[in-house]
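Colleagues,

For the teaching module next term, I've prepared a clean inverse folding example: a structure given as tokens, and then the sequence designed for it. I'd like students to try predicting residues themselves before seeing the answer, so please don't circulate the second half yet.
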């Protein structure tokens, strides 16, 4: 309940940020800033603080940067401060791609940041001369396209990438690309086609040779989770719960909190489709405890799930609150599919869900 910051935490924070502002990289007028306002979090611990210059900190306090730097994005800056991010531009294509994969899978991007990455990639001759790195970069763009609801370019890229990864004998990224393609079909509500790909992907993972069981399980976590929600929309709730539970158990076994949270989210949605309101609420409340603070796309999906839940429960006020959050974040990050869902939830007054 105190604003006091212990000396050791101050040193750890400065070391974490590389002695510079985590957002802009300025090395003067540095301050300890609360990621979530102190009046809300009531803590001044290492986990709740970030190093910012007075300009960035002042902008957040005064409100003119609130829309750009939501708490989830600030957590991402804490994990990857400016001093660290700059290393990805210094002729290290693998590190640059690793950063791009991080922001694309979690939805931590805005147009100006994507343009900066494109510039970095375009000037990295060592990346452009490596077919595998080029293909993996394109997979990141396809992921972003899918998250933004642009399924046609996402599927187009996926088809090309499948052939590329096959020639390169990169079966891991073939599996990831198949998941992406099936996910785009799911968004288009082509559930039968999506399920067919998910099932083939499961078989491909089980047939992989010279990989550890841990690696197989990492793939299966996503595959079972996606199969589960697809079965739910096809009306087979028993199979949906069975697969979602398998995904949760594998995530727990690997101590993967992000995947566990996403599987829990799907569990809540499956309960929602079967009108089990209390069970759905129980699952979705657990999600907020496990979902990483820098998981933006997952958080927006959670807002929509909760909005749909409150719609069925007939709680108009909470339904509108969740829809408003989802709309705000979707506009900010370009999640057009989630934006459409949120708008439908906001406009709907009936106790039902499509």
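(Answer key — instructors only)
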């Amino acid at each position: 309940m105190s604003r006091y910051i212990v000396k050791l935490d101050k040193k750890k924070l400065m070391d974490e940020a590389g002695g510079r502002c985590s957002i802009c990289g300025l090395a003067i007028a540095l301050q300890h800033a609360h990621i979530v306002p102190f009046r809300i979090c009531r803590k001044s611990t290492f986990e709740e603080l970030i190093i910012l210059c007075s300009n960035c900190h002042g902008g957040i306090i005064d409100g003119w940067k609130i829309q750009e730097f939501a708490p989830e994005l600030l957590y991402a800056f804490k994990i990857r401060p400016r001093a660290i991010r700059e290393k990805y531009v210094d002729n290290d294509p693998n590190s640059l791609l690793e950063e791009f994969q991080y922001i694309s899978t979690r939805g931590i991007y805005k147009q100006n940041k994507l343009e900066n990455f494109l510039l970095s990639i375009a000037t990295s001759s060592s990346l452009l001369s490596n077919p595998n790195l080029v293909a993996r970069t394109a997979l990141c763009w396809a992921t972003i396209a899918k998250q933004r609801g642009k399924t046609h370019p996402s599927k187009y890229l996926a088809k090309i990438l499948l052939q590329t990864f096959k020639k390169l004998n990169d079966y891991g990224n073939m599996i990831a690309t198949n998941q992406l393609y099936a996910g785009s079909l799911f968004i288009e509500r082509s559930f039968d086609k999506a399920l067919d790909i998910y099932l083939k992907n499961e078989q491909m993972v089980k047939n992989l040779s010279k990989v550890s069981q841990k690696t197989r399980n990492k793939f299966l976590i996503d595959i079972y989770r996606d199969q589960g929600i697809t079965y739910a929309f096809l009306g087979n709730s028993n199979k949906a719960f069975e697969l979602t539970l398998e995904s949760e158990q594998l995530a727990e076994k690997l101590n993967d909190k992000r995947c566990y949270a996403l599987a829990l989210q799907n569990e809540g949605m499956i309960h929602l489709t079967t009108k089990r309101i209390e069970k759905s609420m129980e699952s979705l409340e657990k999600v907020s405890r496990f979902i990483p603070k820098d998981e933006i796309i997952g958080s927006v999906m959670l807002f929509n799930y909760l909005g749909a839940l409150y719609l069925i429960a007939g709680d108009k006020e909470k339904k509108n609150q969740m829809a408003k959050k989802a709309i705000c974040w979707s506009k900010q990050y370009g999640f057009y599919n989630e934006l459409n869902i949120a708008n439908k939830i906001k406009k709907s007054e009936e106790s039902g869900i499509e």
